[in-house]
């Protein structure tokens, strides 16, 4: 699979469009805590995971749906990149 | 300041410190220590939780003073040692040794050098053996006191730990594992937040140390405030279902029932706050759950650790497995699965804490209904999304009004659902709503107005920054938190000083005084009394503080339960002691004679020259928890024969006809039986709540459709509109205006029948060992007995000035012990001596 996808940008765009419409993109930084900050709840996490599975054929495991892997745009992008290799 | 700008700051930057990980400046250290000293004083002044917790807090705060200066690598082992010391302080050396041994065995299994499947199987095997021991099917060499704490340590944490071992790439160090299971505050709290192991490891000293410690203090102070608010609700606002007679009381019932949850949120704040002192920067346990604006929001805000545990161990694995079915189907099924497991784990938790499974229809219905509501809400959010914001949310008047409306509606819906969950029975809950037919007064607006005011105040837009490092807060927010904490500490301490609160009036002084001690509420004391009188011990909810008392009760407390002593005989009395039954218990032998009396054998009729008295009563008369010959009846009989025999009578016989659980109307049946033994006197031993217990038994009899062979009681039931099959709570409510009349009939008939049979009716009041609501009816009961023509001996003050622990069986069993019976016997003998001429009449019959 192609590995040069800019997941940081894709994840950010998706989060802004799906969960934070109308918010200032500059404020959504790569290290902003999404789960602990209340932006990604279980429903949003599920939507996000399924979106990337459908769009990029990346399969995530249940135990990866946690703060360690999904709390920031940076960590989500890192996980997706590692899976896309 | 925006969330992004705040988060861009490095930890410690705002404080102007460039502290190394875990380091604290001397000034900040003394600031923390000073606040801890004040907090300790506050815990003492308000007797927060228990004496054991105060000792544990002293240990924790002293431990902090050392821990804060240790090199980082030594801190976790130090915390483990401190935690083990805490277990020893609270549980004693032997229990602590057993607890640690079992714990090490369980943790050891998790790390055996075999496959995960084998480790899982071994863990299940070990848990199975422990469960059999907990249920009393297998013997165990340790004390019962271990179970609740062992259960609290492992019942959920072991599941999460094992899950993380399976998936986490970095193996935990021994210190991390031991610190996780032996967490210092656990020794005092069987209800413990389900802390996530991964978070426990990951967030360790991941922020400026001073700020971590300070947040811990904030949360502990907040916890104390929750607990004080809880006491106000628990002592002053709670009502029993049968006391709810009008809409205002119904509203009070609904609100107070839900607010009892403040105890859990208070304790969890205390527990997690204490862990912060040792560097564990854990997430919030509760997030303003009274302000939830939907059911999913409620689920997310209340007991957040539980939600996260369920999400991690059950929800995500299920939803990921089911995703092929489609997102919505997977979400619905996984959510319902989570609520099914929540119900099951609630019963499972009860099992480890109490030793019995809690399988109640209301539990299933409550979790089922909440699950369906959360599913509906989740589907809505899935399709329509929910408002999220990166900073302070922008609100208009309209959006604020909608939010307030949604929050208000959610609050009341949850109150109703909560009442459904916590009311004793479905019938009692349904009958609650009959109160809507009561009088509508302005008082019914009180709670809705207060709740609305709180929700409006709570809906003011604020920074949505939560669960992030404290060093990410701006200076203003940080200083405001400091001010709130210190001001709260000083305000509460000032109010707690007796010389000061008494200055504000006697009523206020009494109010504060009541809040300064942890005790059972009027209702729980009444329920404990109910257990005492009826041996029901029907405490089957975590919401009642009483469950904690019963949690300590050993499985086979007296070796023989009331149900084994008695058998069903039908008729108005329903049960009797089993004739010729003998059982050896840890408190001595219980022997029932051929006539069904807990006494030695007697002839059916008294010999000439023998004075015979029959003693009627309930469990204390029968001698619950003392051996043959140790009941006050037996002690008095021996003394009468020792000191008075040879005078007016050659011999004295007191026949013990006490039956555990007997209520005043049942004594009508027993009195008839007593006359067959031709007594010179009938000694009716009365206890607390004679009036309400008499009415409650009539309600029970009507509810069960038992034939009532007494015209007077039938007439009262008919006047009150009580009919066969009616819910007992509703019947009690309807009988409330006739309560005194019921007892008047019972006493009047016993006294009259006694006189007809030539027996002197004597009424003796025996108090409970614990001061409580039973005292409310004593004066009225004395008046009724007096008016019925009994010779009255009031022993109301027999236990006055005595240490309760010296005269009762146990914390969970308020029956008098051997010493208690001796005290009663001494006083009773004196009382009989005073009335000797009236009672001991040779020509009495």
Automatic annotation (TrEMBL), chain A:
Residues annotated as domain Carrier: 6-84
Gene3D superfamilies per record: ACP-like (1.10.1200.10)
SUPFAM superfamilies to which the protein is assigned, alphabetical: ACP-like
Name of the protein in its database record: Acyl carrier protein
Taxonomic path: Bacteria, Pseudomonadati, Pseudomonadota, Betaproteobacteria, Rhodocyclales
Automatic annotation (TrEMBL), chain B:
Keyword Methyltransferase: no
Transmembrane intervals: 26-43, 52-70, 76-109, 116-133, 145-163, 219-238, 258-278, 330-352, 364-380, 401-421, 441-460, 481-502
Alphabetized InterPro entries for the sequence: SGNH_hydro_sf (IPR036514)
Keywords from the UniProt entry: Membrane, Transmembrane, Transmembrane helix
The keyword Signal is assigned to this record: no
Coiled coil: none
Top-level taxon in the UniProt lineage: Bacteria
Stored SUPFAM superfamilies: SGNH hydrolase
Gene3D superfamilies assigned to the protein according to its UniProt record, in alphabetical order: SGNH hydrolase (3.40.50.1110)
Protein name per Swiss-Prot or TrEMBL: Uncharacterized protein
């Amino acid at each position: 699979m192609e590995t040069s996808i800019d997941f940081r940008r894709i994840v950010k765009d998706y989060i802004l469009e799906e969960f934070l419409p109308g918010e200032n993109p500059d404020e959504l930084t790569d290290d902003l805590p999404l789960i602990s900050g209340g932006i990604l709840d279980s429903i949003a996490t599920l939507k996000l995971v399924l979106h990337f599975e459908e769009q990029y054929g990346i399969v995530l495991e249940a135990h990866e749906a946690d703060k360690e892997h999904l709390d920031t745009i940076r960590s989500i992008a890192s996980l997706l990149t590692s899976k896309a290799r | 300041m925006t969330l992004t700008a705040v988060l861009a700051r490095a930890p410690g930057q705002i404080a102007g410190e460039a502290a190394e990980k875990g380091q604290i400046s001397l000034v900040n250290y003394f600031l923390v220590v000073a606040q801890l000293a004040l907090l300790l004083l506050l815990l003492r002044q308000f007797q927060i939780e228990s004496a054991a917790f105060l000792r544990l807090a002293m240990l924790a705060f002293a431990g902090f003073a050392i821990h804060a200066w240790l090199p980082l690598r030594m801190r976790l082992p130090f915390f483990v040692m401190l935690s083990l010391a805490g277990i020893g302080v609270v549980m004693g050396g032997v229990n602590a040794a057993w607890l640690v041994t079992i714990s090490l065995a369980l943790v050891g299994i998790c790390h055996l050098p075999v496959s995960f499947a084998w480790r899982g199987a071994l863990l299940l095997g070990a848990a199975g053996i422990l469960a059999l021991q907990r249920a009393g099917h297998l013997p165990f060499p340790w004390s019962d006191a271990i179970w609740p704490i062992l259960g609290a340590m492992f019942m959920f944490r072991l599941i999460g730990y094992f899950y993380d071992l399976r998936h986490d790439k970095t193996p935990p160090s021994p210190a991390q594992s031991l610190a996780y299971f032996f967490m210092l505050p656990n020794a005092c709290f069987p209800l413990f937040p389900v802390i996530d192991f991964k978070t426990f490891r990951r967030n360790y000293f991941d922020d400026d140390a001073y700020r971590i410690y300070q947040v811990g203090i904030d949360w502990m102070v907040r916890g104390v405030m929750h607990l004080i608010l809880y006491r106000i609700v628990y002592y002053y606002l709670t009502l029993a279902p049968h006391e709810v007679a009008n809409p205002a009381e119904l509203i009070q019932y609904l609100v107070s029932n839900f607010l009892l949850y403040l105890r859990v949120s208070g304790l969890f704040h205390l527990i997690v706050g204490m862990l912060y002192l040792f560097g564990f920067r854990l997430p919030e346990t509760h997030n303003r759950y009274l302000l939830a604006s939907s059911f999913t929001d409620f689920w997310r805000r209340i007991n957040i650790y539980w939600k996260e545990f369920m999400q991690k161990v059950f929800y995500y694995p299920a939803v990921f497995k089911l995703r092929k079915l489609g997102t919505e189907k997977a979400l619905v099924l996984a959510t319902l699965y989570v609520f099914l497991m929540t119900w099951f784990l609630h019963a499972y938790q009860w099992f480890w804490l109490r030793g019995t499974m809690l399988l109640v229809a209301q539990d299933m219905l409550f979790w089922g209904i909440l699950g369906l509501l959360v599913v509906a809400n989740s589907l809505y959010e899935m399709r329509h999304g929910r408002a999220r914001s990166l900073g302070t949310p922008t609100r208009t008047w309209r959006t604020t009004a909608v939010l307030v409306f949604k929050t208000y509606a959610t609050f009341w819906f949850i109150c109703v659902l909560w009442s459904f969950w916590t009311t004793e029975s479905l019938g009692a809950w349904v009958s609650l709503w009959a109160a809507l037919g009561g009088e509508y007064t302005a008082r019914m607006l009180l709670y809705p107005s207060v709740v609305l005011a709180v929700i409006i105040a709570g809906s003011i837009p604020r920074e949505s920054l939560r669960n992030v490092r404290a060093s990410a807060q701006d200076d203003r927010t940080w200083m405001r938190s400091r001010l709130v904490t210190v001001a709260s500490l000083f305000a509460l301490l000032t109010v707690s000083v007796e010389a000061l609160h008494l200055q504000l009036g006697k009523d206020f002084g009494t109010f504060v005084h009541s809040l300064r001690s942890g005790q059972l509420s009027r209702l729980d004391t009444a329920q404990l009394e109910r257990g005492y009188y009826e041996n029901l011990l029907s405490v089957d909810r975590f919401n009642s503080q009483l469950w904690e008392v019963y949690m300590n009760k050993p499985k086979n407390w007296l070796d023989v339960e009331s149900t084994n002593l008695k058998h069903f005989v039908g008729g108005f009395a329903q049960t009797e002691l089993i004739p010729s039954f003998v059982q050896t218990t840890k408190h001595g032998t219980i022997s029932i004679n051929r006539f069904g009396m807990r006494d030695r054998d007697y002839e059916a009729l008294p010999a000439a020259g023998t004075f015979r008295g029959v003693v009627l009563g309930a469990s204390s008369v029968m001698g619950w928890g003392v051996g043959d010959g140790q009941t006050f009846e037996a002690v008095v009989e021996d003394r009468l024969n020792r000191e008075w025999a040879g005078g007016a009578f050659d011999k004295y016989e007191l026949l013990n006809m006490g039956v555990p659980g007997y209520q005043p109307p049942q004594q009508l049946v027993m009195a008839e039986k007593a006359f067959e033994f031709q007594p010179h006197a009938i000694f009716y031993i009365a206890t607390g709540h004679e009036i309400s217990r008499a009415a409650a038994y009539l309600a029970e009899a009507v509810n069960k459709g038992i034939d009532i062979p007494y015209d007077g009681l039938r007439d009262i039931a008919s006047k009150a509109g009580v009919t066969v099959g009616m819910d007992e709570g509703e019947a009690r409510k309807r009988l409330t205006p006739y309560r005194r009349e019921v007892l008047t009939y019972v006493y009047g008939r016993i006294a009259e029948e006694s006189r007809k049979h030539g027996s002197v009716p004597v009424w003796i009041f025996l108090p409970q060992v614990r001061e409580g609501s039973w005292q409310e009816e004593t004066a009225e009961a004395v008046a009724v007995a007096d008016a019925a023509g009994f010779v009255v001996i009031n022993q109301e003050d027999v236990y006055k000035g005595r240490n309760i622990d010296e005269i009762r069986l146990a914390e969970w069993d308020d029956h008098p012990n051997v010493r208690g019976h001796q005290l009663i016997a001494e006083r009773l003998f004196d009382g009989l001596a005073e009335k000797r001429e009236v009672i001991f009449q040779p020509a009495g019959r």
